[in-house]
Design goal:
mainly beta, globular
């Protein structure tokens, strides 16, 4: 008896004047450039945002959110680790899988924040 397994993967890449935004299914969301306003669904992968004045909303969870640049905002339901470099970047989260209930955060720069919603 043999069976067939089928895997569905969402993968997208968008290049525009603003820069590049790509998602590899439930593994990774990557946004580069200026002025993106994007929505994604993620289940345990990673989010990387670089550039300026991007707003990224993620439904679901990420093991890590990395932000670099200025004026970026990331909204996510659940995250365990946050790394921010630059200035005026904010990661908003609802919950975390850590014991403290807050994500482990590494902030470098001025005016960067991790805020519970």
């Amino acid at each position: 008896m043999t069976g067939t397994g089928v895997a569905f993967a969402q993968s997208s890449k968008v290049e525009s004047i603003k820069g590049v935004a790509q998602s590899d299914g439930n593994k990774k969301v990557e946004v580069e450039g200026v002025g993106h306003k994007l929505n994604y669904t993620l289940n345990g992968g990673t989010v990387e945002v670089s550039g300026g004045d991007n707003t990224v909303t993620v439904k679901g969870s990420a093991k890590k959110v990395s932000v670099s640049g200025t004026g970026n905002k990331v909204y996510i339901d659940r995250v365990d680790k946050v790394a921010i470099e630059g200035g005026g970047n904010t990661v908003y989260y609802r919950t975390s899988g850590t014991k403290s209930g807050k994500p482990d955060a590494s902030l470098t720069g001025v005016g960067n924040k991790v805020v519970k919603q």
